[in-house]
Recover the amino acids of this structure.
């Protein structure tokens, strides 16, 4: 259990760093848009709660990547894929999961919750966010898969395969 928790936290941490490094560093260096996930998180908090205390957006962004999105791959995306398409490589699952994260972030959270244009108006930031979310998912999945962790649906527990 400790190994599983440490792997999941490591996966989330490395994936969040990769997402931020790409979206806030590499992308602008290459002349593309700069992601502002903290701004989106703050706007969402303000819309939902009426205020966004200083630092709250950063905390929400960090915890979302560290815990929520990583658990989504481990507990939902990969087990469903294993049940429906057991021979599909994990990297395909991760890439599709990254696209699902992008839809969740830019349509559900940004548009439906925070009131921004759907997919932020399909501007440059939209496509940087797509690549960033796919990078996030691939990095998180690579860490999880390197440790051969699976969430066994019938027994509902995490196991490490030898």
């Amino acid at each position: 259990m400790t190994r599983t928790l440490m792997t999941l936290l490591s996966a989330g941490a490395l994936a969040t760093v990769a997402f931020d490094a790409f979206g806030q560093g590499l992308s602008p260096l290459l002349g593309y848009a700069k992601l502002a996930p903290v701004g989106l998180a703050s706007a969402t908090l303000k819309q939902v709660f009426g205020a966004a205390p200083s630092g709250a957006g950063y905390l929400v962004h960090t915890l979302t990547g560290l815990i929520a999105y990583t658990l989504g791959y481990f507990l939902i995306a990969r087990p469903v894929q294993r049940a429906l398409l057991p021979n599909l490589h994990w990297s395909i699952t991760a890439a599709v999961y990254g696209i699902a994260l992008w839809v969740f972030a830019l349509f559900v959270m940004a548009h439906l919750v925070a009131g921004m244009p759907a997919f932020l108006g399909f501007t440059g930031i939209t496509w940087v966010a797509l690549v960033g979310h796919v990078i996030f998912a691939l990095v998180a999945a690579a860490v999880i898969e390197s440790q051969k962790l699976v969430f066994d649906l019938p027994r509902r527990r995490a196991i490490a395969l030898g």
About this structure: The first helix runs from residue 2 to 29.
